[in-house]
Write a structure and sequence with these properties.
By secondary structure, the chain is α/β, with parallel strands linked by helices. It has helices at 15-30, 45-56, 63-87, 119-126, 153-163, 197-205, 213-222, 275-285, 314-322, 355-365, 389-400; strands spanning 2-7, 34-39, 92-95, 102-104, 113-116, 130-134, 137-139, 145-147, 168-173, 194-196, 226-230, 239-242, 254-270, 293-295, 302-310, 332-345, 372-376, 379-385. The strands form four sheets. The protein has an eight-stranded mixed beta sheet with strand order 3-6-2-1-9-11-12-10, with helices on both faces. It has a six-stranded antiparallel beta sheet with strand order 14-15-13-16-18-17. Strands 4-5 form a two-stranded antiparallel ribbon. Helix 1 links the parallel strand 1 (2-7) and strand 2 (34-39). The radius of gyration is 23 Å and the shape is globular. Bound molecules: adenosine-5'-diphosphate, aspartic acid and magnesium ion. Magnesium ion is lined by residues 8, 151, 154, 209.
Length: 402
């Protein structure tokens, strides 16, 4: 059997944890399996490297050099893990992303995997070696190192499982599965035995960082079944992520929170046809993803438009609007980063009216004001004050789960 195992940063944070992970790998290998392992950088290494870059250039280090820097974190963890396995007497080799055949596009810091040339991986597996691969990185057509965006190691693991048609793809982390809400924030969150790709994709996109959303997207595309498990309690069963899951009676699958949100308002904008098109077309051309949009009713021939973007896109989005000043009449552009998006997700809500109202009731009971709302067939999101977000998640979770 070919098993792909991925270990996140918290699972390899120190020497003791590296040995713990090495034991899990060797256990599977000694049963006669082929094992490919994907690892993230140890603990907070990636954050520490970003802080180092800011010491040198706080505003705009080039993205190419950021990738050069950030990819170093995984180089450390793969070699240490390989050394730990060597001490246990098993044949092992560590490989950087480019050595493992990860070809990506050239969008530095958020590159997408184009394909995996699995030759080297297969060669090492044929030699009966355990292969340890650096997650989160690849190489572009100019032979420059790229990284896949924060949390990208999950995607590296799924990509290998898809390319090599692995029998199992296990994502080990510091919790023992996917819960109805972040178990660190919501004490009575419940573990799910299984969840379907679409619901997991929504949860991940809306802030449940237990799985990176691109990894779920890729798992769905190539039909890779995922198993989310704990590296600290490795023999506990986890959560399976797959195409179809038996429908349960519960109305919603989970609650997620995203603090990486900024709202931007264009104030006293002229009120005539074509204005929204002009603005959002320019934002789209700048590759800025706009999430929730709210337009006030017109008065005195003006209106306000407020929309949300991720905080990383805030500056760029404001620059795009400011650049329209010559062709658009408006008074000011303002922004607010003290906001959070809280969402409920569940395929069951499509056929159940009143789900949104129930969420709003929970927020009303908790005295939390809603600034903006957006809905789709399988989710409802609200924008609220960031300092109320944890409280909101608990209130909404209590209303639906149990
Ligand atoms: P890793 O370093 O293993 O990649 P992450 O920190 O990226 O781990 O993801 C695991 C964390 O995700 C958990 O510690 C947990 O706090 C958080 N999390 C958020 N939402 C959920 C959820 N619905 N179920 C499980 N964990 C969640
Ligand atoms: N080390 C990278 C990060 O912290 C990738 C990952 O953890 O998946 O984002
Ligand atoms: Mg992660």
């Amino acid at each position: 059997m070919l098993i792909v195992k991925k270990f996140g940063g918290s699972s390899v944070a120190d020497a003791k944890k590296v040995f713990n992970v090495a034991n899990l790998i060797v256990e599977d290998y000694k049963k006669g399996n082929d094992v490919i392992v994907v690892v993230s950088a140890q603990g907070d290494t990636t954050d520490d490297l970003i802080a180092k870059a800011k010491e040198i250039n706080p505003k705009n280090p080039s993205k190419r050099e950021m990738d050069m820097l950030l990819s170093a974190g995984e180089q450390i963890s793969i070699s240490l893990l390989a050394m730990a396995i060597e001490t246990m007497g098993c044949p092992v080799i560590s490989l950087l992303g480019w050595q493992a055949g990860f070809n990506t596009d050239s969008h530095h810091t958020v590159a997408r995997i184009k394909n995996i040339n699995g030759e080297r991986l297969k060669k090492e597996i044929d030699k009966k070696k355990i292969v340890i691969v650096a997650g989160f990185q690849g190489i572009n057509k100019y032979d420059d190192v790229t990284t896949l965006g924060r949390g990208g190691s999950d995607t590296s693991a799924v990509a290998i499982a898809a390319a090599l048609k692995a029998d199992l793809c296990q994502i080990y982390t510091d919790v023992d599965g996917v819960y109805t809400a972040d178990p660190r924030k919501v004490p009575n969150a419940q573990k799910m035995d299984a969840i379907c790709y679409d619901e997991m994709l929504e949860l991940a996109t809306l802030g449940a960082q237990v799985l990176n959303n691109r990894s779920v997207e890729m798992a769905k595309k190539y039909n890779v079944e995922l198993e989310v498990r704990s590296s600290l309690e490795p023999h506990k069963s986890g959560t399976i992520v797959k195409e179809k899951v038996k429908m349960e009676k519960t109305l919603i699958k989970g609650v997620a929170k995203d603090n990486n949100v900024a709202s931007i308002s264009i104030v006293e904008l002229e009120d005539k046809p074509g204005i929204a098109f002009k603005i959002f077309n320019k934002l789209a051309q700048a590759k800025i993803n706009v999430d929730i949009i709210l337009q006030s009713i017109g008065r005195n021939n003006t209106k306000d438009i407020t929309f949300t973007v991720s905080q990383d896109n805030r500056e760029d989005a404001i620059a795009v609007i400011e650049a329209l000043k010559d062709t658009l009449d408006f008074k000011a552009v303002t922004y607010d980063e003290g906001v959070s998006k809280v969402s409920i997700v569940g395929a069951g809500m499509e056929s159940n009216p009143g789900v949104a109202a129930k969420m709003f009731e929970a927020l009303f009971d908790a005295g939390i004001n809603i600034r903006m709302i957006s809905t789709s067939e399988i989710k409802v999101s609200v924008l609220i004050d960031e300092n109320k977000a944890d409280e909101a998640v608990i209130a909404v979770h209590d209303k639906f789960v149990n």
